[in-house]
Amino acid sequence: MNIIKYMLKNGKQKIMRLKILHKILKDSGQFPYVVFNLKNIRYLTGFTGSNAYLIIDENANYFITDSRYEIFARTLLNDDYRFIIQKKGFKDVFEQFIKENKIQKIFLEPSELKIDVFNTLKNAVPETELIPASDYISEMRAVKTSDEIKIIQEAVNIADSCIDHILKIFNPEMTEWQLSAEIDSFYRKNNCRRTSFDSIVASGPGSAMPHYVPSFEKKIGTDTLLMIDMGCEYLDYCSDITRTFFIGNVPEKFMEIYNIVLEAQNYAIEMVKPGVKCCDIDAAARTHIEKRGYGNFFGHSLGHGVGLDVHENPYVKSDNSELLKSGSIITIEPGIYIEGEGGIRIEDMICVTDEGYMNMTGSSKEIIIL
Amino acid sequence: MNIIKYMLKNGKQKIMRLKILHKILKDSGQFPYVVFNLKNIRYLTGFTGSNAYLIIDENANYFITDSRYEIFARTLLNDDYRFIIQKKGFKDVFEQFIKENKIQKIFLEPSELKIDVFNTLKNAVPETELIPASDYISEMRAVKTSDEIKIIQEAVNIADSCIDHILKIFNPEMTEWQLSAEIDSFYRKNNCRRTSFDSIVASGPGSAMPHYVPSFEKKIGTDTLLMIDMGCEYLDYCSDITRTFFIGNVPEKFMEIYNIVLEAQNYAIEMVKPGVKCCDIDAAARTHIEKRGYGNFFGHSLGHGVGLDVHENPYVKSDNSELLKSGSIITIEPGIYIEGEGGIRIEDMICVTDEGYMNMTGSSKEIIIL
Question: A315: distance to nearest CA of chain B, Å?
């Protein structure tokens, strides 16, 4: 994997991505364009810090950060970028750029631009037109290259191994938090910098809360459901999978519910191919759950894209009529939640391929009774 | 600590904070007011999820989230809030609120409001005036109550214990990443949900990068500096401390640099009391470092507030003339960084008291040679 890491940090991908962005901006007449989203900056440059901006102009690109990141950023950037260390805030650099280059209008990436930052910039250059534009880089990120798919597959493999690890070390005397900490520790031992989100370890009625927070005090116990939703960041890319286990004797109806959720998931996965509407995938799972009488117990959307962010384009939900593209990676994660009793969710990561789909997730979906 | 947790979750603090906000909004004539910042929502309600909004009106408060958080949120909220589950996005709820209540103008908290969200809301209710207002809750958060100070003190104590733990288990054969993972594991075993930021473990020339990322491959080694900057989140509140250690034989000049940084820190800390300008605290440390000839090697600002966020108001930097208030908690963290060789930073957390200050940090600042 070091070769891929090297390529990402030093190689062709960064140059290619910048070229594509330049072509988009040229075709749409949107130079200069300012990038505020740090994940988008990471995508273009490999920079992983907490403060940076890009100004992409037709004949020059500017990378702006502060002194804390100066040495690190210099190791990443090639001649494509002019390097600027901001002395105070970004506003001063922005103002100077506008004035020196006599810019009449400038296009701003909207997804992470806060209204107070926008107003500060606007007040600094009142004569210049500031135009919120499309988030082109997030759109680019929705289609992964083969190198990115390889890295994300590795992130999923590590999550699969973590499920195996949990099944080995599990005992009902552990608190939810202890199991959650085990997940985190497993990831760190496997060279993941962090979990891709706070791991969900939910037993009993907690499993009926789709985004439950593991308890420090509550033991997992027996005769209960155990829902585990987690993932890691590997080489900056995320994974996200969910499995629900049965511990001891669980009311019979949850066996039925498990199978309904699994069938719903399969219906949705089978539909995945380029050109299908995201909302139709959502509907495939939702309709099945409704038909089986649990429509009111599945409130969230079916899935989301995964990449540098654990939630990114495309969103698999009822009000998104966007068409799936080959190279996107999405989750399919239906669930049924009975308040006060428990819930079942099953989540896989699916890669959209030219032919249809590839399920990236290896963990068993048989009912496992611990 | 369970009593404090209980109070925070159920008790007086939430009611008091909401009352103060109501008074501010009434005095400034800024009803209704929409809250977008999740940490501010946590401050008012205890909600820890990833999607929520508040609409604060003179005679009613609305808490809006999605179905994933429904059960969890209901357990937190008292009668002060009307509870709304958004079916699609926040936009629909916002539009309905504006139309049902015939709102002519509405005030929006600016700090986390993205320009594209602002434009979406604006387009939904073109007849209504949308006014970015002040971030009143962040201002409230800059002054901690005695209960908050107790919790943050505990978060600092855990970080101090973590320094002790590191000194016990350290050996030069460990990679930077292994030591970083040890820090994380220590925090999780001590009931911290997460680190308050990615721990910095930097040896050799890496310590000259103020925000270095620990290497998976690089062993810490001997005859080197070791900079550790880390903190935890305990009951949602953050800590943040830095210590720099000497391993084996380090060039003599770093002993001198260590003492300059420590002196600079002491000059700054001694100035801390209510009514002093933040920029003057920064200047106290910076002037000393300049006088000793290292002005060009200390690029970042001196410190920042710490609370629910690890970086929050007040910012201790050269362009902030805000006056310190009793009850604020800030870091004081000067550093000197020599590119290619190494760097020294020493960071304490300081509570501003009525009389002056209390240093919350217990870890030794003697030069420690490992």
Answer: 13
Is B110's CB within 8 Å of A119's CB? yes
DSSP β-ladder status, B194-195 and B232-234: antiparallel
CATH number of B146-359: 2.60.120.560, 3.90.230.10, 3.40.50.300, 3.40.30.10?
3.90.230.10
Q: Given an 8 Å threshold on Cβ–Cβ distance, is A185 in contact with B188? A: yes
Closest-CA residue of chain B to A320: B88
Average pLDDT over chain A, rounded to an integer: 94
Max distance between CA atoms of chain A, in angstroms, equals 73
What is the tens place of the pLDDT at every residue in A29-69? Answer: 999 999 999 999 999 999 999 999 999 999 999 999 998 89
- Whether pTM > 0.90 for this model: the answer is yes
Across the interface, whether the CB atoms of A132 and B116 are under 8 A apart is answered: yes
Say if the Cβ atoms of B115 and A110 lie within 8 Å.
yes
Helix (H) or strand (E) holding A13: helix A12-28
CATH superfamily of B2-141: Creatinase/prolidase N-terminal domain (3.40.350.10)
Predicted pLDDT of residue A134:
94
Contact between chains at A69 and B211 (C-beta distance less than 8 A) = yes
B85/A210 Cβ within 8 A: no
Is B253 in the A-facing interface, judged by CB distances under 8 Å? no
- Mean pLDDT rounded to a whole number for chain B: 94
Residues whose CB is less than 8 angstroms from the CB of residue A88 and which lie 6 or more positions away in sequence, other chains included: B318, B319
Run of H or E including A216: none
* ipTM of the complex in this document: 0.89
Cβ-defined contact of B299 to A116 (cutoff 8 Å): no
Q: For residue B256, what are its two tokens?
A: 């001198």
Name the residue of chain B whose CA is nearest to A195's CA. Answer: B194
Point out the residue among A113, A114, A210 whose CB comes nearest to the CB of B111.
Answer: A114
Q: What percent of chain B shows pLDDT beyond 70?
A: 97
Task: Give the Cα separation of A178 and A226 in Å (integer).
Answer: 14
Task: For the sheet with B303-305, list strands across it.
Answer: B312-316, B303-305, B329-332, B348-352, B357-359
Distance in angstroms (rounded) separating the CA atoms of residues A5 and A17: 16
Phi, psi of A171, rounded to the nearest 5 degrees:
-145, 150
Residue B122: its pLDDT value, please? 97
pLDDT at res. B11: 57
Nearest CA in chain B to A72: B209
Architecture of domain A2-140: 3-Layer(aba) Sandwich (3.40)
What pLDDT shows up at residue A256? 98
**In the predicted structure, residue A259 carries a pLDDT above the cut 80:** yes
Task: Give the residue extent of every domain in chain B.
Answer: 2-141, 146-359
Q: Which of residues 161-180 of A touch B (CB under 8 A)?
A: 177
Show the low-confidence residues of chain B (pLDDT under 70): 1-11
